[in-house]
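Lab channel / #folding
Pinned by the channel admin:
"Please post every new chain as: sequence first, then the structure tokens as a reply. Keep commentary short and put observations after the output so the thread stays searchable."

First post following the new format, from NK:
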Amino acid sequence: MENMDVVENYTSCYMVLQNLWKNNKKKEFEQVLQMNLSCAPNPFKLALVCIKLCPDLFKSKNNGMAVAVALELQSFLGKQEKCYLGCLKKEMQVDVFNLAVRQKNTGMMRVLTKVYQLGDVREQFIPTLHAMIVEQHYKEVCTLATLLDLQEHFPTQELIVPLFCQDRLCLADEFLASSPKHQKELVIFIDSVIGREREASLILEKFNITDIGRFKSSKVLCNVLGRLLKRFQLDMSLCPHLYKRRSVGGLRYLFYKYYIEKGLQTTAFHSLVEDAVKETPDLKYTLVDLFCEYCDPQSALPYIHKYQMKSENLPQSIRDVMLACPSLDQINSCQNAVKIASEECWDEDEISYPLSICQGNIVLIDSVEEFEKCMIDVSKSPVLGLDSEWKPTFGIGAGEQVSLMQIATATHVYLVDIMSLQPLLDNSHWSQLGNIFTDANITKLGYGIKSDFKILAKLHNDLKKSLTTPKNIIDFDQKKTALLELLPDIFSFNISAYKGLSDLVYRCFGKPLNKSEQFSNWANRPLSRSQKLYAAVDAVCLMDIYNYLNAKSQELGCSNWQNLKVGTPQSNPKSAKKSKKKEPSPDKTVVQRRQGPIVAKDFHVVCDTMLQGLAKKLRLCGIDAVALENGQTSDDCIEFYEKERRYVLSRGTAYRRLVKYIPAEYICHVESEGAREQLKEVMKSFKVQMAPDDFLSRCVKCNTNSYIYISSAVIRDLQKSTGSAQGDHWIDCKGGQINLGSGCTDDGVKIAFSKIATAVIDKIEMFYVCRKCGKCYWDGEHENGSFRDVVQEFIVPEGMIVNCVGLSSVEDEAAESVYDLGKQLNILCVEDLDSGQICFNRQYCL
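Reply from TO:
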């Protein structure tokens, strides 16, 4: 142990270093510290004294003096670390550990652990880390347990589950990445609470977590679990509840697709249903229930016979049909007639885009000899149209597996039966196929071709290597976006109601693709005639689009359409002399919104996960704002738009994806950063008008606009009475009833009155309790505070109600006249979101 004089010398050294650091002399700071470390009898002790004296030691700063000292010590030791090992004492390591556990800066924690070699005495830190778990310092324990390689000493239920419940699982990323045991235990736990909210509540109570919102949505849990399985490459068999839920969801989707959307051929529907039940036999009774739900019990009879289901377990409606139905042979003959009709429906379709080559030039490749001939032919073609098909898996099983690959040349289309060929082809055959993708002399056409590459890469390692460095690829999915922005005149039809490749085909030729076989059982053999035609058209149309764009671009004098990219100016000679203004990026494209203002109460939005703060601000303005929870995907925004016609607010890459599926007037790219600035941007973009009573009319937490009004006296009674043995004591309040004994509303919602301070109760007369979540609100300074100033420009003052009989609605063509008349009458004109008409609002005036 150093004597007092040495420690004092270390302190003097710190004073010199601090002076250099304050004067921003970083270079001199490093030189002086390195010199003192080399002269000190114990460099570990010198650095530790300096670190302890640093005022920024426990601040989360990566550029602080404490971090700089630790890094300089690490640099000093370098290769000569072994020379100073005798200076590193156990007492000093314990001292450093006590500093590390209090660190907010994970980087500093990492450096201290490494430099002072805390891993050598890791065992004695275990009790301290367990005590930290009791105090709920989960983040620090996760980091230190990982750095010290102590994961096995901490059960998943004690350390990882609480982080998951608090929606802070990201803090355990490094911990989980190095511990397969905890990975499995975590996914098993999440799977165990899917659809079992009662058990989840008990778990949350155990960890003192009051917000059970994390477990309210089984859909969110399934999404999180699916991502964890994919990330850790774990088998789905660990999660039986997820597997069953996805299987049932997949089966339900098949029925919706077939009976409601009419988007499935009868043959494909029954083939996929049979496969689903074959993979998950427990679905057979769910299958029967779905036939009843969709009012088609007769179609369930063949499955009942096939799977030998007991009649006592079947719904009464099915048993009634079984008594009155014809023989099973007659049922099967009727179904076969429907299947044959569905096979022949392709030829009768005159609305869809037809196959542009002779059907005799569709070649099915299902043998090695035919494959070799096919490779020779396609390698000579300068341009190829590529596509692939696979059976839908609904997120269960081994994932998507390519069943069929289509390769189109100028005269033929080859349907390569991957399912039949995969066990027959050797390494040289896969290399031949891979060479097509790396050959720069062959132009490869596709639509969303990266997704095809991803699935094809699973077939063979040689093919996977080729697909990582493909050459001369044209992805029409990306090109369509660039052409619509920079060269829209290249398309013959500019308005389209279709999506994906079908949208591009329509814009070029005025006819969409027939997508009836898109959702088909491509793993079933033999392939049906309509499947072969569908697969052929999907590949051949790529060649047709390529030829069309080449010809059309020549007409427009823009031969470089292949090189156009979003955000770059077009090279059309006709527009070369125009102003050299920057082309707007897709995020900043000006969208023509609806012409009239929207009343806040009629404005319904859904905010992407990155805009959850904006959703809360919108609710403060009385706007119905749904916010996607962590774990939900941007696809849920599409569902909200389709089902509820909500406006979608998004940004970044999620916006660029969503804008392909949602009309431009229903989606907004939010560019501002702060929630308040985002609010102003959205309100101005959609011309939202608020009534005075819209302000603070919705619950910020759950988006509900229904409240129970409770006096301060009742709040006092709740705090005194709740939990006592006095039993149920109901009190009538404005908006509902409350139970003084349980502290719940008549909906069974627990009122969050315990968080209200006594001083507030003494000052406030009336409280507003959200009927859905129990959160308590009261009138305070915020009502007239800074936030109200932010939205003041959007509030329309109340006025007298104007009798507008005979002027209730006007067609959009006369919108400008309506607004002028509205201003003359001093009435706010708003737009009816359902009818699309401009209306005089009878409640508010300008």
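NK: DSSP finds 35 helices and 21 strands in the chain.
TO: also worth noting, The first strand starts at residue 362 and ends at 365.
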